[in-house]
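Sequence, please.
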């Protein structure tokens, strides 16, 4: 290849790179505005006690209501927020909005008969900030909620780095009385020793461990083994990605306490979720 070839490749490459960088800068600027303004919204998905249909938890899932591009899903902007440090402001917004929503549901006459916890998703970056502990304490104080009603979901990826600061933060959150749950279990390293070591009470098993096993003759045995492993570690299992009645029934009969997924409900906007809470005692109604 000649030098000229190399240069021509570069000329093609550079404007594309520049364009990508401009797009990204624009996205970062818009995301900053979205957090400061009121373009973030929470959707809510119930966590169901399989034996009774009782709503035992609600997971808050963030979306970005973009003024021109519509509803943007978290997978498209959470990574950007994490890389640019905007995640702490975003996470703090989610924390306060979720806790405030739970307070409203627990005090409004038409929804107060329900008794469930609020689950929010935490980033690895949050565990690396000492102020995060203060943020959680402040949000709980402002809402006057029992700390046990707030459950923080942490992915294996977020904690496996397991450094001193992580451990200190987790222990401090534990002291505050909030619940801790491992999210997406089975997609990361899934080390048994760290299941034993971490101060968590629950494990949410990743949905791919349900769908990928769908046609595998070993599926029932594997599900039973995963549930047994979790129980042997003294933890409670929640299975995510429950999409049909057979899965829900199979999990229930295998001893799984709770499930979450489209079979019960998709994540819903606040107004719709509130309406369902007001109308129904158990789920699915
Ligand atoms: P996650 O915490 O594992 O949340 C579960 C995801 O699976 C959600 O996607 C939910 O809509 C989807 N899901 C629920 N049931 C089913 C089902 O039956 N089948 C299938 N195929 N999918 C189901 P979503 O809302 O797009 O969120 C994606 C991820 O973004 C979350 O995964 C979480 O890691 C992250 N995320 C969402 N909200 C926040 C937030 O407020 N802060 C942070 N740091 N991360 C968030
Ligand atoms: Mg989650
Ligand atoms: Mg998950
Ligand atoms: Mg996930």
């Amino acid at each position: 290849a000649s030098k000229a070839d190399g240069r021509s490749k570069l000329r093609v490459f550079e404007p594309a790179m520049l364009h990508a960088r401009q797009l990204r800068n624009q996205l970062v600027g818009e995301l900053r505005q979205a957090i400061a303004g009121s373009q973030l919204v929470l959707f809510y998905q119930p966590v169901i006690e399989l034996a009774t249909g009782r709503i035992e938890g609600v997971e808050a899932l963030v979306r970005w209501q973009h003024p021109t591009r519509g509803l943007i899903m978290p997978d498209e902007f959470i990574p950007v927020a994490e890389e640019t440090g905007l995640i702490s402001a975003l996470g703090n917004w989610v924390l306060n909005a979720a806790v405030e929503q739970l307070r409203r549901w627990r005090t409004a006459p038409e929804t107060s008969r329900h008794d469930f916890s609020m689950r929010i998703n935490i980033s690895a970056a949050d565990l690396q900030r000492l102020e995060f502990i203060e943020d959680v304490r402040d949000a709980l104080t402002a809402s006057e909620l029992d700390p046990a009603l707030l459950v923080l979901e942490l992915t294996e990826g977020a904690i496996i780095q397991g450094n001193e600061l992580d451990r200190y933060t987790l222990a401090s959150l534990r002291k505050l009385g909030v619940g801790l749950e491992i999210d997406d279990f089975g997609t990361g390293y899934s080390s048994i020793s760290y299941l034993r070591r971490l101060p968590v009470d629950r494990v949410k098993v990743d949905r791919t461990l349900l769908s990928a096993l769908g046609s595998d003759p070993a599926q029932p045995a594997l599900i039973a083994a995963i549930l047994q492993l979790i129980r042997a570690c003294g933890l409670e299992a929640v299975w995510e990605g429950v999409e049909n009645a057979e899965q829900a029934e199979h999990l229930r009969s295998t001893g799984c306490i709770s499930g979450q997924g489209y079979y019960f409900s998709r994540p819903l906007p606040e107004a719709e979720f509130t309406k369902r809470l007001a109308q129904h005692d158990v789920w699915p109604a």
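The longest helix spans residues 3-36.
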